[in-house]
Amino acid sequence: MPKTGSEIRESFLKYFEAKGHTRVASSALIPKDDPTLLFTNAGMVQFKNAFLGLEKRGYARAASCQKCVRAGGKHNDLENVGVTSRHHTFFEMLGNFSFSDYFKEEAIAWAWEYLIDIVKLPKEKLWVTIYKDDDDAFAIWNKKMKVPKDRIVRMGEKNNFWMMGETGPCGPCSEIIYDQGKGTGCGRAECDLNCGCDRYLEIWNLVFTQFDRDEKGKLTPLAKPSIDTGMGLERLTAIIQGVKSNYDTDFFTPVIRLVEKTSGKPYGKNTDNDVSIRVIADHSRAVTFLIGDGILPANDGRGYVLRRILRRAARHGKLIGINKPFLHESARVVIDMMKHVYPDLADKASYITKVILNEEQRFMETLDAGLRILQEETAELKKAGKSVLPGAQVFKLYDTFGFPTDLTADIVKRDGFTLDNEGFEAEMEQQRERARGAWKGSGEEAVAECYLKASSSGIVTEFCGYEGVTKAESKVVAIFVKGQSVQSADKGQNAEIVLTMTPFYGESGGQTGDTGYLEGTGFNFTVLDTKRPVENFIVHKGIVQKGKIKIGDTAHLIVDEERRKAIAANHSGTHILQAALKAVLGDHIKQSGSLVNAERLRFDFTHFSKISDEELQRVEDIANDMIRRNLPVQTEVCALEEALKTGATAVFDEKYGAAVRIVKMGEMSKELCGGTHVHRTGELGLLKVIHESAIAAGVRRIEAVTGREALTHVQKMEEGLKGTAGLFKASLFEVYDRAEKILKQYRELEKENEALKGKLAAKDSGDLMSQAREIGGVKVLAAEVSIADARTLRDFGDKLRDKMESGVILLGSKANDKAMLLCMVTKDLAGKYHAGNIIKELAPLVGGSGGGRPDMAQAGGTQPENLSKVFPALEKIMIK
Ligand code: ATP
Ligand code: MG
User: Fold this and answer.
1) Which atom of ligand 1 is least distant from the CA of 202?
2) Ligand 2: distance of its center to the CA of 87 in Å?
3) Within 13 Å of residue 177, how many CA atoms lie on the same side as its CB?
4) pLDDT digit string (tens) for 715-735?
5) Would the CA dihedral through 98, 99, 101, 104 be positive or negative?
6) What is the 72 CA–ligand 1 centroid distance (Å)?
């Protein structure tokens, strides 16, 4: 009998393999086929198209163990986590599926056989629910499986009828439920299957997809119905291991042990602590798997869900007395526990833990301050008899301290507080207003407005510059001068021209705008830049060189072809670079920004650690390999959903129209992109990385050059190296060794020099001592020396003082048009003379200022010619 969680997972998959199912690996937590879904939340998600008949797979029966997250969107169990013993944000769902193959009878029989015969659940504790009208299911359970009829409960649409969407495939379900006994859950006499407590534990849901639903809600039976089932692995494991809570299974205990150790709080002794420990154990798994699948903490979308989960766990750590980052350590335990099933976790282990540690540290910086403010605020409100936290306060915590609102809600819940969500939303809206206001003030508004007016009046520009087209003929339809729409522009005027069609690429998607010229009868216009401020609206910015350009004129448009080619090469270069980065660093690489112009390309992407020289070289190798293979660059236009299905890389927050363009380079690269590209990768000639750096937490930047620029770059480096080699009288390949040797010699000489200087100074100080005089019973040494730097002057002064034993020293020197002063007072005279004060008085004489300690002070001045005035002045001070 399977006993450990892993054995149970395996026994399920084996059982269904024996029943003719193909074992299919879990898909990622980011659903590939469904851009509308936040996270994969059930086993059927990866089979959606197979169910809809849109996709043919090589099998009609499948079984899987699917990674699921229910912490955002339609399915959100976040609030339940830690409170119930059966809900998680991350869990694994076992499932068997039939795509128009077997149906209800087999699905029920096999589920029952697996539970009773394979994992040996006691029949007498099992219940089943069915949809109220599903007499077939009743008959199968009652007649064939011999489940007594009082154990078969009919339920309504809400619980037992499943729909994929408003329309489409749907059908009744049947759930298998395990009664944990009176001692578990709410303990009420009337507790039954409808109760939300832990007693009646739903383990398996069988969905019988047998209808098609139309817009009016009419159900038409499907000719070939399907099966979709889902069973929580953690719940099944808890039952098999004879424990009442998922948290007592081997999926959680290693993490709980670590949390106990770190916090010093034992699990199972205090209700509040236990909730925190469970939350941490659960969230440790979720953040590990989410980051492993390429999500990074962010302020919106999936990244925000991750951030909320992570911060919530961090705060629960604080509640049980953990005052340092610790989640990166519990994630390590999760990785070790799960890597045999999900080997990619092992590959990404250091990346995952780094992302977590970084986010923990960021949050630690504000957590304490935020909690303090929150505590003060709630104490005040309580005194005033209030129980709602004002929106402004919630907003401040969100905005300044990084507290997601649900975290704040969770914190104040224990004190009986709720949040003023409306007030919070109003604050958020105000902030958005302020952001817009700041934008308005930037001076771009007037210009944008004239564009908007023109474009909304129906003026559109068709872009005809793909496929290497750089020339066209077209009609002038709008002219702007200084943000105003005008009829014409004259020689010498800066103007912006809009035409019905253009081969000029307007800056967008990081690619710079084209330059070139427009010419027509009686005019010539140089295009210095091209913009695309509005969709389908391209503006040529430049200057009228000759004549007058008028609305209605016909113009020949000529793009600077050489420059366009260089830009195209750099744009294709970014795609190649991205593919190479993915190949070397992993699939978590996502573009977070890019810039492409004629000189170089810049690519920003998500990655946590520094990129080693060796990795960078491999990236260059792969990129140049793609170039030498001279891959064809192909483009196709299709609907966004289609494009995402094919696995094309999309930048998440970039907006794509309904129809998108995919740019493909061989099998290595496939991206949604509207830019202009080379025809074959060979046109790049060479791609050379010139700079790599970090620009924000988790975001790195690579700059590179291609084509002629790349060659120039290499030539320049060679030139520099040649010059150096010439200096060292070595060949290019020997110069390093030679330089290293000479540097070593140089350091040795430097040391020797220091030693000699010391010796000389000791000798000089001996000579100088003879100049010491006695003033008012104190030995005073005042002298000009020729020492050029402050440190040496100080060292020299130290030596003199040691020799003098008791007295006052004033040294002056001239160096590079500057004067330097140093004063020292021996210890025994402290209280009588103050070096700092002496310098303060003397420094102005040489045009400077300064001060310092009672025993030592230094100053600089701009009038070295006055140095001689200083020494008599000292005498006066001494006598005073
Ligand atoms: P519940 O009512 O207990 O929240 P559900 O009806 O939402 O469950 P389904 O959507 O039918 O569950 O998912 C199928 C199975 O997945 C469930 O029977 C259960 O075993 C498991 N499951 C669902 N949600 C979770 C969760 N948040 N954590 C762990 N297991 C879950
Ligand atoms: Mg649920």
Assistant:
1) 18
2) 8
3) 23
4) 999 999 999 999 999 998 999
5) positive
6) 15
